[in-house]
Amino acid sequence: MKPVAGTRGALIGPAGQENGYVMKDKTITIYDIAQEAGVSPSTVSRVLTGNAHVRREKRERVQNLIDKYNFVPNALAKGLSDTMTRSLGVVAADIRNPFYAAVFMACEQAAERLGYTIGLFNSLNRVENEEEQIEKFRQQKTDAIILLGGRVDDLVTNTQFAEHVRDVCRTTPVVVTGKLDRTPCYSVRIDASAAMRQLMDHLFSFGHERIAMIGGRLDVTSTYEKYQTYSAMLHERGIRENGEYVVSGGYDYQSGYDGMNRIFALRERPTAVVAINDFAATGILRSIIEHGLSVPDDISVVSFDNTYLSELTIPKLTTTDYDYDHFGRLIAETAIAAAEHREPDPEVRVGTTLVVRESSGPASV
Amino acid sequence: MKPVAGTRGALIGPAGQENGYVMKDKTITIYDIAQEAGVSPSTVSRVLTGNAHVRREKRERVQNLIDKYNFVPNALAKGLSDTMTRSLGVVAADIRNPFYAAVFMACEQAAERLGYTIGLFNSLNRVENEEEQIEKFRQQKTDAIILLGGRVDDLVTNTQFAEHVRDVCRTTPVVVTGKLDRTPCYSVRIDASAAMRQLMDHLFSFGHERIAMIGGRLDVTSTYEKYQTYSAMLHERGIRENGEYVVSGGYDYQSGYDGMNRIFALRERPTAVVAINDFAATGILRSIIEHGLSVPDDISVVSFDNTYLSELTIPKLTTTDYDYDHFGRLIAETAIAAAEHREPDPEVRVGTTLVVRESSGPASV
DNA sequence: GGAAAAATCGCAATCGGTTGCATGTTGCTC
DNA sequence: GAGCAACATGCAACCGATTGCGATTTTTCC
To answer: Does residue A101 sit at the B interface (CB-CB below 8 Å)?
Structure first.
């Protein structure tokens, strides 16, 4: 930037406008305000931050100028001298997924209430991207970094990724919605196990015994926990676990659709299926309809997440809800508390609620 | 921040770790690198930015240290002296809406490729929020601000909002996906009129004449354009426009559902309905099913946006697609070009493609 | 009324970079 | 080998805030 002629704090000229073309106004600084108010920049800074004594008369004089010029302090400069930028960096696996969108929103709202700003980035689940963005946030000196889904959940690539995160943790607190072993970061996550329990209990109460589980990769922590619980609960009831009923895959429509088609290839089909999430459930619904059966009369379908998808399918889905506002708030609060060295609980799990809608019913004979 | 003892650029100590507790590492700066490399900070800066001559030997010496310490230049400091932060601020109406999510993602990907970072904020359509966030971005000195949907589309509150935006435009380029009259900001938007034309032609080709339009507020620019085209095309065909067939409302599931129920209250029902977007279409589908009719046999349903929703409904929706990657790229490129004073086209419209799926068919008798 | 305590407020350093200017160095040309 | 352009590199100012220190003014209290 070219140095401005004269010393700091030149006079504030009239807003620039030149023969039709918009001209950038000179950005005004505390020096400008200070000069016009006849005080020192320090004083302006003090009325800005508010935590110091300034004589009433001067305070008002300065405040008026601030209002008059619609002055906003430069966050970069502030961050530079403060070491606190009051900003959080979020890396989300895929913001198009309604689950992440909901969490992000809640998180962002909470952060905002606490006076923090949020930067978002989508990793699209590519590791390089994720690491790259974490670096970018580090450059920007965000006070904390939040990882929504993505690699934090993946037990396989976990090792090398954890390595990187571990490195980052040494300079910036990191909170993840998954589990990263032996890494000093905060974890705030859904109690996947409890959610599965609710779903299974619900199905049992309807007399289901042949229950399938479709979608999700077992190397993802939350999915693994779900499977563990699924398996355990069948055993508790003395029901033989049928390996063919567990079809792993992804977390989208197609995975649900393909998975259910696989199920239909079996000689004995289940009376109920648990989808890994609402998204997959929609694919499952489609497959069932295409096979000429109906939900829940022939087959019950339940899923996780209670995103808005579960209300717009036909039939509406029975799912588990997480109170997104609460979830998001916990994430934001944890991140901020960590940023402010208030040592938050390093591991928080949030509960779930069963939401019964139309897609589940008594087991067919 | 407490001043560090000694002069600038103390020696780099070993990574801090203390009886189990993680300790923040000292953040290293170009001064540290400079000292250890035995050169001046200017030189380090020069190898960092790359656009200056540095003797090969020194360049390598510095580069090695940068790698060794995994040094990342402080973006705040850089932004302070540069006046370019290479960051964009995005204010989205509601990121949970798959349309905005898709646009945002595309936009973000494009910006990233161009070396820019993105900050996101959700206005949830509340004006104060929107203005407040714009201010926040201004403080952060983002090089440009992008407004996705929200108030930029609203013709009513437009006046006062435009006032504010006009103010912002004087310091930061603004690009909107709508239309803001008499405001010096860039507009990149869907050709809503063309999209409607494709939908109507498609329906006409199936012999439909009694066509309803459900959802959307006429005081929103894009919706108004759609309605204008809808109306004009009926007239072209010499079809009398039935006022009761135009049911305005919101842009969500409920609006579609309620709107369609209203239609069913009429004595003569339409043979086809155009939903304001995929979201509303899902509600319409529900209403039709509940009335014991089927799509598209009894009624055809078409909509706008081609979000992933249109593929997971039963039946899958016929909609208009926008090539989101292209759309997002245009937005990002416009914003960046403006930021770099390269005067981009102030008004760009992106075309649409009809995607025929299962929800439309011949008019029933 | 006078002294100590408290409130004001400016100076100047600092955060971590970038860059114009000035001062060498090198390399080329003839 | 002289002359000159291009290259290298350091110094110091600057971006726009914050803040400790110390000087000055007010208040408060006996």
So the answer is: yes
The chain B residue lying nearest A184, using CA atoms, is B22
A169 interfaces chain B, CB cutoff of 8 Å: yes
| Residues A306 and A331 occupy one common structural domain | no
Q: Domain residues for B22?
A: 7-68
Among the partner-chain residues A81, A139, A314, the one whose CB lies closest to the CB of B1 is A81
Residue B171 carries which side chain, given as an amino acid letter?
T
B217 at A interface, C-beta within 8 A: no
Nearest CB among B22, B72, B169 relative to A135 is that of B72
Check which CATH number belongs to the domain holding A156 and give it: 3.40.50.2300
- Please compute the mean of the pLDDT values over residues B37-61 and round it to a whole number: 90
Residue A203 lies in a domain: yes
Query: Does the residue B329 lie in any domain?
Result: yes
Residue B260 with chain A: CB contacts under 8 Å: none
Phi, psi for residue A11 in degrees, rounded to 5? -65, 150
Predicted confidence (pLDDT) at residue A228 exceeds the cutoff of 70:
yes
Contacts of B171 in chain A (CB under 8 A): 24-25, 27
CB-contacted nucleotides of strand C (7 Å)? 7-20
- Give the closest residue to A203 by CA, choosing from A301, A103, A290, A282: A301
Interchain contact, B121 vs A118, CB within 8 Å: yes
Strands (E), chain B: 17-18, 21-22, 87-92, 117-122, 144-148, 174-176, 186-190, 211-214, 246-247, 272-275, 300-304, 318-321, 347-350, 353-355
Distance from the Cα of B358 to chain A's closest Cα (Å) equals 13
pLDDT tens profile A177-194? 988 777 889 999 999 999
CATH number of the domain at A21, please.
Answer: 1.10.260.40
What is residue A136's predicted lDDT score, i.e. its pLDDT? 86
A318 and A199 within one domain: yes
Report the share of chain A in percent with pLDDT over 90. Answer: 64
Could A83 and B1 be called an inter-chain contact, meaning their C-beta atoms sit closer than 8 Å? yes
Q: Tens digits of per-residue pLDDT, A124-154?
A: 767 677 888 888 888 889 999 999 886 666 6
Identify which of A186, A179, A137, A157 has the alpha carbon closest to the alpha carbon of residue A342.
A186
Average pLDDT over residues B3-29: 47
- In angstroms, the CA B132 to CA B141 distance is 14
